[in-house]
Write a structure and sequence with these properties.
There is one protein chain. It contains 4 helices and 5 strands. Helix 2 packs parallel to helix 3. It has a domain of 83 residues: Nucleotidyltransferase, domain 5. It is 35% helix and 14% strand. The protein has a 5-stranded mixed β-sheet, with helices on one face. By secondary structure, the chain is of the alpha/beta class.
Length: 149
C-alpha cells in the first residue's frame, strides 16, 4: 500500500518577504560607527608670540562663524591650515562672508613682530572683500580662553 499523501509536512515555509525586524538595528549600528569614526578637524596652532592688550571682549559667536587668519612673523598668511598670499585673501574670504549672510567674524591671529605694513595690507584686502566684522586675537584673550576650559 502506497501512501499518497504522507502525514508529513513542513512546519516552516520559506517567506517571500525580506525580514525587516533587524533593519533598525543595522541602521543604528551604522550610525554609531560613523559617529565614532568621524574626525572633527580643528585648526592647528601656529607658533606665534601673541600681542598684548589691556582689555578684551568675548566674541559671542558660534565657532563655525569664526574664520581664523594666522599671520606669522615673516608675513606668511594661513587660513584653515592652508598658506595664502595677501592678494588671495579677498578672493577666499569674500565668498565665505557672503555665504554666511554677513555673520562670519574674521579673527586675525598675528604675531607681535608682524610689520605694520603687512597688517595694513591684510585689512585693506578684507575691506575690499566687504568684511566688516574683524577682531584681533591677543594674549589676554588666550589666557581667558584657557581658564574657561
Amino acid at each position: 500500500m502506497a501512501i499518497k499523501q504522507g502525514g508529513f509536512s513542513r512546519k516552516s515555509k520559506t517567506s517571500d518577504e525580506i525580514p525587516s525586524s533587524s533593519l533598525a538595528d543595522i541602521a543604528f549600528l551604522l550610525l554609531i560607527f560613523f559617529m565614532v569614526t568621524t574626525v572633527f578637524r580643528t585648526d592647528s596652532e601656529r607658533d606665534i608670540i601673541w600681542p598684548q592688550a589691556e582689555a578684551t571682549e568675548k566674541i559671542d559667536e558660534k565657532k563655525k562663524n569664526i574664520l581664523n587668519i594666522w599671520v606669522e612673523r615673516n608675513g606668511s598668511i594661513f587660513m584653515n591650515d592652508q598658506p595664502y598670499t595677501i592678494e588671495q585673501v579677498s578672493e577666499v574670504v569674500g565668498p565665505l562672508y557672503a555665504q554666511s549672510d554677513r555673520r562670519l567674524v574674521i579673527s586675525i591671529r598675528g604675531d607681535r613682530e608682524v610689520p605694520y605694513m603687512t597688517m595694513d595690507q591684510l585689512q585693506k584686502e578684507l575691506v575690499s572683500a566687504g568684511v566688516v566684522r574683524v577682531v584681533f586675537a591677543t594674549e589676554l584673550e588666550q589666557r581667558m580662553t584657557r581658564q574657561r576650559r
